[in-house]
C-alpha cells in the first residue's frame, strides 16, 4: 500500500538577501503522520514551516497540497492551521469563546459551532474549564486551549512551531504524549518544529534532521538513532563516543590506540561511533568481544537508571562514556582512578564516512 502525501515540498530555496536560509529542500508529509522538523537553532525549521503555511514565499521551488500547486493560494485560504510558539489567547474571553472564535469568523451555523466546540473541549480535556479565562489556567491548560482553537477548524494539516517550548520539563513530557494522542485520535497530519531531539524521538513517526538550511537525513526515530547517515546525525540524536580513524583491511586504525572493528568495512578517513549503552565494563580482560581496550576510570556520574562511567583510553584526549545500567547481572567494580576494561562488538558501532 502506498501512503499518499498531503504536502509535497519540491526543491525549496529561500534567500534572505544574499543569505540562503533554505537550500534546495524536498520533503513530503504523509497523510495522518506526525512529522518533526528537527535541528539546531537557526537551521531553517521555522522558515520551512512558514513556507508551508503560506506566510513566506520561497525564492524558488514548489509547495503542493493534495497534488495542487499552492504558489498563488494565500495563507488564509490554505486548509492548514499554524500554532505559534507564543500562543496568544484572547485574555478577555473564556476558554469556550476562544475556541469558538474561528468558527464564528468562518460564519458556520450556530448548531454546528456548538457541536464542534463541545467535541473539541472534550477531546482536549477542557470541558470543565470552559468558562474560565486564560489567566485562570496553568501553562499546560493554556497550551491545550491553543491546540483546541487550532484543531476545531479541522485543518488538513496542523503546523506547530516549538509548541511546548514554554513549558517546564515534566509538563512538556506529559504534553508530548497528549499531542501524540490527539493527532492519533483525530487522524490529522501534524508537522512539528523542535530543536529538542528527545521530543522529536518521543512524538514523531518520521523526523527530518536539518542542518544549515538542508535536510541531513529523514527517517523514523530508530532509523536516525541506529543508522545515522553522518557524524552530524549521530552527534545530534542521542549521545555517542567518536573516534577519528582511517579504514584499512577491514579495520579502523585509531592513532595511539590501535585497530577497531566496526559495522562495515571502510577505506580512508572515517568517524567511528559507539553509543555508551553498547559498551560493557570488565575488571579483567573479557574473551568474546571484537573490541577490547584497557583504560582508567576518571569520573562516575550517578543518574538513577545507572551510572555514566567516564574512561580515559591510551593517547585519547576525549573520555569515553559508558552507560553502566543499575540492573546489570554481574556488574564490574568501578573505582575512581582504577583500571578498567571496556569492550563492545563491531556490529554495535557505526563507521561514518562523513
Ligand atoms: P530555526 O527556526 O531553525 O531556528 P529560522 O527558520 O528561524 O531557523 O531561521 C533560519 C535562518 O534564517 C537564521 O539564520 C535566521 O537568522 C535567518 N532568518 C530568519 N528570518 C529572517 C529574516 N526575516 N530576514 C533575514 N534572515 C532571517
Ligand atoms: Mg524557529
Give an account of the 3D structure.
The protein is an alpha+beta fold and about 350 residues long. The chain folds into two domains: about 5-230, Rossmann fold (3-Layer(aba) Sandwich), CATH 3.40.50.300; about 240-354, OB fold (Dihydrolipoamide Acetyltransferase, E2P) (Beta Barrel), CATH 2.40.50. It has helices at about 45-55, 95-105, 110-125, 140-150, 170-185, 195-205, 220-225, 230-235, and strands spanning about 5-15, 20-30, 35-40, 60-65, 70, 80-85, 155-160, 190-195, 205-210, 215-220, 240-250, 250-255, 260, 270-275, 280, 290-300, 305-310, 320-325, 340-345, 350. The strands form four sheets. It has a six-stranded mixed β-sheet with strand order 6-7-8-3-9-10, with helices on both faces. A hairpin with a 7-residue loop joins strand 17 and strand 18. The longest helix has 18 residues, at about 170-185. The two termini are about 35 Å apart. About 35% of the residues are buried. The site of adenosine-5'-diphosphate has 10 residues, from helix 1.
Please tag this protein with its features.
single chain, 354 residues, alpha+beta, OB fold (Dihydrolipoamide Acetyltransferase, E2P), 2 domains, 6-stranded mixed β-sheet, 8 helices, 24% helix, 35% strand, elongated, binds magnesium ion
Question: Cα-atom Rg, whole angstroms?
Answer: 25 Å
CATH class value of the largest domain: Alpha Beta
Q: Could you name the ranges where pLDDT drops below 50 across 5 or more consecutive residues?
A: none
Shape: elongated
What structural class do you assign from the helix and strand content?
Answer: alpha+beta
Fraction in helix: 10-25%
- Return the domain count: 2
Give a list of the ligands: adenosine-5'-diphosphate, magnesium ion
Instruction: Give the overall pLDDT as a whole number.
Output: 94
Q: Which quaternary structure do these chains form? A: single chain
Count of individual beta strands:
20
Cα distance, first to last residue? 34 Å
At the fourth level of CATH, the homologous superfamily of the largest domain is P-loop containing nucleotide triphosphate hydrolases
Name the helix and strand elements from N-terminus to C-terminus, one letter apiece: EEEHEEEHHHEHEHEEHHEEEEEEEEEE
Amino acid at each position: 500500500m502506498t501512503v499518499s502525501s498531503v504536502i509535497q515540498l519540491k526543491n525549496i530555496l529561500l534567500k534572505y538577501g544574499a543569505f540562503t536560509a533554505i537550500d534546495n529542500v524536498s520533503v513530503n508529509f504523509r497523510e495522518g503522520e506526525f512529522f518533526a522538523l528537527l535541528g539546531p537553532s537557526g537551521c531553517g525549521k521555522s522558515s520551512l514551516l512558514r513556507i508551508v503555511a503560506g506566510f513566506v514565499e520561497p525564492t524558488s521551488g514548489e509547495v503542493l497540497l493534495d497534488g495542487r500547486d499552492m504558489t498563488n493560494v494565500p495563507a488564509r485560504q490554505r486548509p492548514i492551521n499554524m500554532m505559534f510558539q507564543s500562543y496568544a489567547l484572547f485574555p478577555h474571553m473564556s476558554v469556550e469563546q476562544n475556541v469558538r472564535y474561528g468558527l464564528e469568523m468562518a460564519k458556520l451555523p450556530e448548531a454546528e459551532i456548538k457541536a464542534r466546540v463541545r467535541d473539541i473541549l472534550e477531546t482536549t480535556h477542557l470541558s470543565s474549564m470552559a468558562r474560565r479565562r486564560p489567566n485562570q489556567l496553568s501553562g499546560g491548560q493554556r497550551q491545550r486551549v491553543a491546540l483546541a482553537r487550532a484543531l476545531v477548524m479541522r485543518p488538513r494539516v496542523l503546523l506547530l512551531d516549538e509548541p511546548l517550548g514554554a513549558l517546564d520539563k515534566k509538563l512538556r513530557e506529559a504534553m508530548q504524549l497528549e499531542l501524540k494522542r490527539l493527532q492519533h485520535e483525530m487522524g490529522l497530519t501534524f508537522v512539528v518544529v523542535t530543536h529538542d531531539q528527545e521530543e522529536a524521538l518521543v512524538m514523531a513517526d518520521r523526523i527530518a534532521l536539518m542542518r544549515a538550511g538542508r535536510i541531513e537525513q529523514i527517517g523514523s526515530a530508530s532509523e536516525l538513532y541506529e543508522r545515522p547517515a553522518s557524524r552530524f546525525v549521530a552527534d545530534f540524536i542521542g549521545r555517542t563516543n567518536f573516534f577519528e580513524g582511517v579504514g584499512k583491511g577491514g579495520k579502523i586504525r585509531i592513532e595511539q590506540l590501535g585497530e577497531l572493528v566496526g559495522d562495515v568495512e571502510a577505506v580512508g578517513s572515517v568517524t567511528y561511533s559507539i553509543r555508551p549503552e553498547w559498551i560493557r565494563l570488565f575488571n579483567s580482560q573479557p574473551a568474546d568481544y571484537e573490541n577490547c581496550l584497557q583504560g582508567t576510570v576518571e569520573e562516575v556520574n550517578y543518574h538513577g537508571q545507572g551510572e555514566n562511567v567516564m574512561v580515559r583510553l591510551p593517547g585519547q584526549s576525549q573520555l569515553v562514556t559508558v552507560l553502566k545500567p543499575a540492573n546489570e547481572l554481574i556488574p564490574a567494580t568501578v573505582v575512581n582512578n582504577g583500571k578498567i576494561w571496556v569492550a563492545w562488538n563491531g556490529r554495535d558501532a557505526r563507521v561514518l564516512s562523513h
